[in-house]
Amino acid sequence: MAVQQAAGSDPYFPDNGDARYRVHRYELTLDYRPGPNRLSGTARINGIAGRSPLSEFFLNLADFRIGRVRVDGRQPHYTHRGGKLRVRPAKPVRPGAAFTVEVHWSGNPKPVNSPWGGLGWEELEDGALVASQPIGAPSWYPCNDRPADKASYQISITTPSAYAVVAGGRLLTRTTRASTTTWVYEQAAPTSSYLVGLAIGKYQTVVLADPGLGGVPQHGHIPAQLLPEFSRDFARQPQMMHVFQQLFGPYPFDEYAVVVTEEELDVPVEAQGLSLFGSNHVDGARSSERLVAHELAHQWFGNSVSIADWRHIWLNEGFAKYAEWLWSERSGGRSAQQLAAAAHRLLSGLPQDLRLADPGRKSMFDDRLYERGGLTLHAVRCAMGDDAFFRMLRGWAGLHRGGAVTTTTFTAHVARFAPEPLDDVFDAWVYGAELPPLPVPETRAAG
């Protein structure tokens, strides 16, 4: 499905992303040396101009040294300040025309500043990790950093041979020459810039499931000393994949990888076809299994079906939260109703000034958004009944696969499946701030 482009700049991050064009494909060729934390790269970016002549455009890129910029092979005028590489082509690009940008850059990558601390490229004790949500992608490559601008990627990374490189997508080749190895990954599915994941470290790779005919290849990349705990904590992920495909429809990408770093992470991080966990999420007791479910669910909701801008983040996090509850329900744990009741009790004791439809930048990662998002989907399920609700959910993931959506897109989609209008449900749960009563299933939803 064609990506629905958001009009204008993102209201939460007006300095990120340029709506005057869109990117079709990125080809990144990188060389990284972990010791000195030195990154050099070349990006070949295939773009398409919007409805007006493109006499100037910009890419988001952090504080690197720029070696060369070309537009369709010609040298443009450019400036690089404040995280923006502004480019003025020698000749304006015609409306709707394809064009190619080539950028060479180098330097010491580091996280970009944000209200939530540093985001993006993070140097580890022995390796590196990329966790870009929402605005960290420019910490390591030039990009049109807006979630609705989705493109395919090919990433080639050369590192010392002692290190493994894991990226979202399919590993095409791994070539060793002398003391370095080059890893080439292809992500064909449309991908938002913040979802381009990467991990560089000394990992052992294990097969989590024999995909069989038509199955989904699943791999884990973990430090060798954590393998016993990992083997138990992620043992049920293949079953999770099976359940989610029943509930949400086919897995939207070629394969799925999980990485566990030796260092602790505050929270796991989803990327396209890849999820990143810290060593603190692995204990051999399945203590973080709900997070395993949460990150896997993001592959459908947030990654394949993306948001047009950051106001709609509840469509990512609320859906992944509800997937935690569905996994619990389907795997012998507490029911979604029991978990909804617990979330409702939690929210009832917290400030009720958050609106899912537009939470504001400061609250876009507030725990209340996650819990209320899950409760909203439970309210929709209770009102629709299970048959209509899960048909709606599979339709949502299928119709908008590879696209970008808004809250209005979702409410209109639900209306096509609901036996009666749900305006009151959305007015209360999505557009209102006060916590509505706990939703309970109607009689027809039983069983």
TrEMBL record:
<feature type="binding site">
    <location>
        <position position="317"/>
    </location>
    <ligand>
        <name>Zn(2+)</name>
    </ligand>
</feature>
<keyword id="KW-0862">Zinc</keyword>
<feature type="binding site">
    <location>
        <position position="298"/>
    </location>
    <ligand>
        <name>Zn(2+)</name>
    </ligand>
</feature>
<dbReference type="InterPro" id="IPR034015">
    <property type="entry name" value="M1_LTA4H"/>
</dbReference>
<protein>
    <recommendedName>
        <fullName>Aminopeptidase N</fullName>
        <ecNumber>3.4.11.2</ecNumber>
    </recommendedName>
</protein>
<feature type="active site" description="Proton donor">
    <location>
        <position position="370"/>
    </location>
</feature>
<comment type="similarity">
    <text>Belongs to the peptidase M1 family.</text>
</comment>
<dbReference type="InterPro" id="IPR042097">
    <property type="entry name" value="Aminopeptidase_N-like_N_sf"/>
</dbReference>
<keyword id="KW-0479">Metal-binding</keyword>
<feature type="active site" description="Proton acceptor">
    <location>
        <position position="295"/>
    </location>
</feature>
<dbReference type="GO" id="GO:0006508">
    <property type="term" value="P:proteolysis"/>
</dbReference>
<dbReference type="GO" id="GO:0008270">
    <property type="term" value="F:zinc ion binding"/>
</dbReference>
<dbReference type="InterPro" id="IPR001930">
    <property type="entry name" value="Peptidase_M1"/>
</dbReference>
<dbReference type="GO" id="GO:0008237">
    <property type="term" value="F:metallopeptidase activity"/>
</dbReference>
<dbReference type="GO" id="GO:0005737">
    <property type="term" value="C:cytoplasm"/>
</dbReference>
<keyword id="KW-0645">Protease</keyword>
<keyword id="KW-0963">Cytoplasm</keyword>
<keyword id="KW-0378">Hydrolase</keyword>
<feature type="domain" description="Aminopeptidase N-like N-terminal">
    <location>
        <begin position="26"/>
        <end position="195"/>
    </location>
</feature>
<feature type="domain" description="Peptidase M1 membrane alanine aminopeptidase">
    <location>
        <begin position="239"/>
        <end position="429"/>
    </location>
</feature>
<dbReference type="Pfam" id="PF17900">
    <property type="entry name" value="Peptidase_M1_N"/>
</dbReference>
<keyword id="KW-0482">Metalloprotease</keyword>
<dbReference type="Pfam" id="PF01433">
    <property type="entry name" value="Peptidase_M1"/>
</dbReference>
<dbReference type="GO" id="GO:0016285">
    <property type="term" value="F:alanyl aminopeptidase activity"/>
</dbReference>
<dbReference type="InterPro" id="IPR014782">
    <property type="entry name" value="Peptidase_M1_dom"/>
</dbReference>
<dbReference type="InterPro" id="IPR027268">
    <property type="entry name" value="Peptidase_M4/M1_CTD_sf"/>
</dbReference>
<feature type="binding site">
    <location>
        <position position="294"/>
    </location>
    <ligand>
        <name>Zn(2+)</name>
    </ligand>
</feature>
<dbReference type="InterPro" id="IPR045357">
    <property type="entry name" value="Aminopeptidase_N-like_N"/>
</dbReference>
